[in-house]
Amino acid sequence: MQVENAVALVTGANGGIGQYYIDSLRSLGAARIYAGARQLSSLDNLVAIDPDRIIPVALDITDQTTVEAVAAQCSDVNLLINNAGIGLLKGFISAPDLSAARAEMEVNYFGTLAMCRAFAPVLKANGGGAIVNMLSILGRVNFPMNASYSASKGAGYILTQGVRAELAAQNTLVVGVMPATVDTKGSQDFPPPKVAPETVAQAALQAVIDGIEDVYPGEQAQAIAAQLLSDPKGVEKAMAAMLPQSA
Ligand SMILES: NC(=O)c1ccc[n+]([C@@H]2O[C@H](COP(=O)([O-])OP(=O)(O)OC[C@H]3O[C@@H](n4cnc5c(N)ncnc54)[C@H](OP(=O)(O)O)[C@@H]3O)[C@@H](O)[C@H]2O)c1
């Protein structure tokens, strides 16, 4: 589908990558951009750049009532960008309890699922449109330093396949975006290489235009995706080797 003249909604629009989604949507000529954030005031600077096109929307994707209200309010959307997500850098075994694993699943899986379900009829009414789910290469292989996050993104990967299958009949393109490390505040302590957030947003929107379902932005993600085909065990072992061992 064309992004020019599209009506988009971006969740987590105040975040590191979210802001670049808004920038790229503007550059590509989107007609209207709903910018979702939990705190509306966090969008003030973003909205000030282009108040005619950027419409702030209070949206916590884990709040079902709000999700449904936003879908009713934004009934002209034909491009849904599920960008909101959290990563709490916890291991499965070393975490003190299950709270991080549950929180990541609540936002990254259940929140994204709730958004897909609420907007499916909206997209259908607007000709099919597209959904972009911000996943991660860590949804394709576990990274033990961010283990429960990996699991939630893995759930998001399977979610993306299933939603794609269910919405094919209504002509909705469902794109999964799987970068490796993106250069945002959240990854400041991570070692290079890092892909620029604008590269991620641009690659995702180009995939929408070209009808491509699986996107691996940046050289690191592309290399891991290729190795997952040729040597999946090697990728698993390489990720495991990054975990500091304590005797
Ligand atoms: N950075 C990376 O290296 C990287 C790599 C691969 C994939 N990703 C994925 O890319 C997406 C964006 O990441 P980022 O680096 O831009 O992270 P970020 O700067 O931390 O932004 C995350 C955004 O999600 C929002 N959010 C969190 N919980 C929410 C909820 N319950 N409802 C609505 N919004 C919520 C945050 O809003 P608040 O300000 O209200 O907390 C924030 O706007 C995430 O899905 C992330 O998992 C990131």
UniProtKB/TrEMBL annotation:
Pfam families: adh_short
SUPFAM superfamilies assigned to the protein according to its UniProt record, in alphabetical order: NAD(P)-binding Rossmann-fold domains
Top-rank lineage group of the source organism: Bacteria
InterPro entries: NAD(P)-bd_dom_sf (IPR036291), Sc_DH/Rdtase_CS (IPR020904), SDR_fam (IPR002347)
Gene3D superfamilies on file: NAD(P)-binding Rossmann-like Domain
Entry keyword set: Oxidoreductase
Family: Belongs to the short-chain dehydrogenases/reductases (SDR) family.
Protein name: SDR family oxidoreductase
Source species of the chain: Leptolyngbya subtilissima DQ-A4
